[in-house]
Automatic annotation (TrEMBL):
One of its GO terms (biological process) is enzyme-directed rRNA pseudouridine synthesis. The lineage of its organism: Bacteria, Bacillati, Bacillota, Bacilli, Lactobacillales. Residues 97-243 form the Pseudouridine synthase RsuA/RluA-like domain. It comes from the Bacteria. It holds the Pfam family PseudoU_synth_2. Gene3D superfamilies: Pseudouridine synthase. This is RNA pseudouridylate synthase.
């Protein structure tokens, strides 16, 4: 059968009402059909340590074990990141399936070409001894919480949780001017035909985009804003705020006024853990330069 590389073992709760093993795997654990087919074909799904057909019933208290072998589950998400030393890596949370780390401003989330090093995913791969699978990313100049899968099994599960709004981040940003107390920014976003680095409202191949915001503190010059993405377009927060007339302080692409650092931080990772579906709220502490700016301009609340 080959060496077992990944195991998922869970005990069903005493009140967990499930009709069949297939219902558990697909509807509750959110495994894609190709994984269920793999487990069935390889006889790698066990209930109470015995192989069971996926259409058979299961019961509260049963132990369900999934076994995955080798590289048969490799996907485009399973990039080969060169592991690198990670002395500065700040781990905010980890369990069997995921790890959440605090990305510093100025570090790329992932390599752009094979063999590239110096990115956060290289550091995470080093920390995890080579097994790291990207789920989402942060812009290079954005700091904050970033979720990474520790095995390929959970990547499609996390993608489905993100699509359904059960996994998301809250951001903090300092913007120019005084914003209304709260609201929604709902302009479609596409690429900027005049600058391949940038995006714009109503640009090429524009797609719907929604950002919710709430002003935490404000003065005559700046506003500290909490933001939540309802969609996931590239540069969405940066483009929406700039189009609203309140660009992020230090944004090198969308704010003409230079500043030492972009003040956009992924402050909270709200997460539903795969398989157990326990809810977690993981906070990423503000970088010192961000906190110092808030103190200097009396935006601390």
């Amino acid at each position: 059968m080959g060496n077992i590389r990944w195991k998922i073992t869970e005990q069903l709760g005493p009140k967990q009402a499930i009709k069949s093993l297939r219902e558990l795997l697909h509807d509750q654990w959110l495994l894609p059909n190709r994984y269920i087919h793999y487990l069935r074909r390889r006889h790698n799904v066990l209930v109470n340590d015995c192989y069971q057909y996926v259409n058979e019933p299961i019961h509260p208290g049963d132990q369900v074990k999934l076994r995955f072998v080798g590289d048969e589950l490799r996907t485009p998400d399973a990039n080969d990141y060169v592991p690198t030393p990670h002395p500065q890596l700040q781990v905010l949370f980890k369990n069997r399936d995921v790890i959440v780390v605090n990305k510093p401003r100025g570090q790329k989330s992932h390599p752009n070409y094979h063999g590239e090093t110096g990115t956060l995913m290289n550091d995470v791969a080093g920390y995890l001894n080579g097994s790291a699978y990207m789920v989402h990313r942060l812009d290079q100049e954005t700091s904050g919480a970033m979720l990474v899968a520790k095995n390929p099994v959970v990547v499609p599960v996390l993608n489905r949780l993100i699509s359904s709004g059960q996994v998301h981040r809250q951001y903090l940003a300092v913007v120019a001017g005084q914003m209304d107390k709260e609201g929604e920014l709902a302009w479609s976003i596409g690429s900027d035909p005049t600058d391949k680095r940038k995006y714009m409202v109503g640009g090429q191949n524009a797609k719907a985009a929604r950002t919710l915001y709430h002003v935490i503190a404000t003065n005559h010059q700046y506003s500290l804003v909490r933001l939540r993405l309802m969609t996931g377009r590239t540069h969405q927060i940066r483009v929406h705020l700039a189009h609203a007339g309140h660009p992020i302080i230090g944004d090198p692409l969308y704010n003409a006024q230079p500043a030492p650092a972009m003040l956009l931080h992924g402050a909270i990772q709200e997460l539903v853990l795969p398989f157990t579906f326990q809810r977690k709220e993981i906070q990423a502490p503000l970088p010192p330069y961000f906190h110092n700016f808030l103190v200097k301009y009396d935006l601390v609340r």
